[in-house]
Design brief:
The chain has 3 domains: 8-100 and 173-245, Rossmann fold; 113-162, no CATH class; 258-323, no CATH class. Helix content is 45%, strand content 7%. The protein is built from 14 helices and 8 strands. A 4-stranded parallel sheet has the order 3-2-1-5. Strand 2 (71-74), helix 4 and strand 3 (93-96) form a beta-alpha-beta unit. InterPro entries: PAPS_reduct_dom (IPR002500), Rossmann-like_a/b/a_fold (IPR014729), Sulfate_adenylyltrnsfr_sub2 (IPR050128). This is Phosphoadenosine phosphosulphate reductase domain-containing protein. Residues 42-255 form the Phosphoadenosine phosphosulphate reductase domain.
C-alpha cells in the first residue's frame, strides 16, 4: 500500500476543512489502518486532549468496531498525576511499562534538551570515537566532500558538547516506545501543526504510513487546536483537568525539549506553582537545575531559560507597573 503523500497546498486545504469533514476523513484513516493490520491494530492513549478525542473518534467510527480495538497507556513514571488519574478513569485502557526509569535513562544516555535533533547530534559527538562524526556534526562536511547544513549542530548549541553532563534524544525510545513494544501498530493522536518536523513527516507520508520501518498512523494530523476544542464541546467529552491549570501539552513532565521557545510561564515555571513536588524532583534528583544553570552561562540574557515561577510573576508585576505609569510629556 502506498503512502498518502501530499503537497503543502493540499495540507493547507485540509487544515481549512470544516470539522464535520475532518471527522469523516479521520474515520476513514482509522478504518483503513484497522483494515490493513487487523488484530495487530491498536490505539496509543496518553491521557492528553488530542488522545482523548482520538479515542472517542475510534470508538464511534461507523466503519469498525472501535470498542474491540486494544487501547494502551505507556506508564513511564513521568506523567503528571492528573494524567494518571484521568487515564485510570477511562474504561478499556491497558497499562504497559518500560524496563528503564527516567533517572536511569538520563544517567546512561543523557538529558533531553533543546530538541531531538540537537540532542541526538550533541550526544553523538560526546560519545564519538571517530573524527568523522565530530567533523560532520560540527561543520556539516561529510566524508565524501559534500556539505549538509542539516547534519550540523547549530552554532548556538555547540557549547553543549563540552557540558558537564551527557545529552541525548533516547528518552522517548527507552521509555515510551519501549513500553509500547509488542502492543501492535498503534493509532496515535499526533497533529502536524504541533511542530515543524511533524509537519515535514506528514507531508512526506500523510496520515497512514504502512510501508516504512516503523509504520505509524496519525488520523488527526490535519486537525487544529480549535478543532479539538470544538469536538470536545460538541460531544461533551471529559478531558484531563490539567489543561485548566494552564498547560498546553502534557507529555513527560521532566522533558526539556523546546522549553527555551515557550512563552512564559513555561512548563517548568508553571510546574513549580501547580506541582511543586514534581518540580523539586526535576531540579534536585534529576539534576535539571544544574543543566539549566550551565546552559544559561552560555546563552544570551534574553534567551536564558527560567525555571522559577517567581521570575514570571516578577516580570508580570513590572509590566503592570509600567502600564500604570503616566506617559512622559
Amino acid at each position: 500500500m502506498t503512502q498518502d503523500v501530499i503537497t503543502a497546498h493540499e495540507y493547507a486545504e485540509r487544515i481549512a476543512w470544516p470539522l464535520e469533514r475532518k471527522i469523516k476523513e479521520s474515520w476513514e484513516r482509522i478504518a483503513a489502518w484497522v483494515s490493513y493490520w487487523g488484530k495487530e491494530a491498536s490505539l496509543s492513549f496518553s491521557g492528553g486532549w488530542d488522545s482523548t478525542v482520538l479515542l472517542h473518534l475510534a470508538r464511534t467510527c461507523p466503519h469498525i468496531d472501535g470498542h474491540a480495538l486494544p487501547v494502551y497507556f505507556a506508564d513511564t513514571g513521568t506523567e503528571y498525576p492528573d494524567i494518571r488519574k484521568f487515564v485510570k478513569s477511562t474504561p478499556g485502557v491497558t497499562w504497559v511499562r518500560p524496563k528503564m526509569k527516567f533517572h536511569e535513562v538520563i544517567g546512561k544516555y543523557g538529558y533531553p534538551v533543546v530538541s531531538k535533533r540537537v540532542a541526538q547530534y550533541v550526544g553523538e559527538v560526546q560519545r564519538a570515537n571517530t573524527a568523522q562524526i565530530v567533523r560532520l556534526r560540527t561543520t556539516g562536511w561529510r566524508e565524501n566532500g559534500t556539505h549538509s547544513p542539516m547534519s550540523t549542530i547549530p552554532q548556538k548549541w555547540q557549547f553543549l558538547i563540552g557540558a558537564p553532563f551527557k545529552v541525548s534524544d533516547k528518552c522517548c525510545d527507552k521509555i515510551k516506545k519501549a513500553a509500547m513494544k509488542g502492543t501492535g501498530h498503534a493509532l496515535v493522536g499526533v497533529r502536524a501543526a504541533e511542530a515543524k518536523n511533524r509537519e515535514k513527516v506528514y507531508l512526506q507520508y500523510g496520515c497512514n504510513a504502512f510501508d516504512i520501518d516503523r509504520p505509524r498512523s496519525w488520523p488527526m494530523a490535519f486537525w487544529t487546536d480549535e478543532d479539538v476544542r470544538e469536538y470536545t464541546a460538541v460531544h461533551n467529552l471529559e478531558y484531563c483537568p490539567i489543561y485548566d491549570l494552564g498547560y498546553h501539552r502534557t507529555g513527560c513532565f521532566p522533558c526539556a525539549f523546546g522549553v527555551h521557545l515557550e512563552p512564559w510561564p513555561n512548563r517548568f515555571q508553571l510546574m513549580q506553582k501547580t506541582h511543586p513536588r514534581l518540580w523539586n524532583l526535576c531540579m534536585d534528583r534529576y539534576g535539571f537545575q544544574m543543566v539549566f544553570e550551565f546552559m544559561n552561562e552560555w546563552l544570551p540574557a534574553k534567551q536564558q531559560i527560567s525555571f522559577h515561577w517567581s521570575d514570571y510573576t516578577a516580570r508580570e508585576a513590572r509590566k503592570h507597573q509600567q502600564a500604570e505609569l503616566p506617559m512622559a510629556v
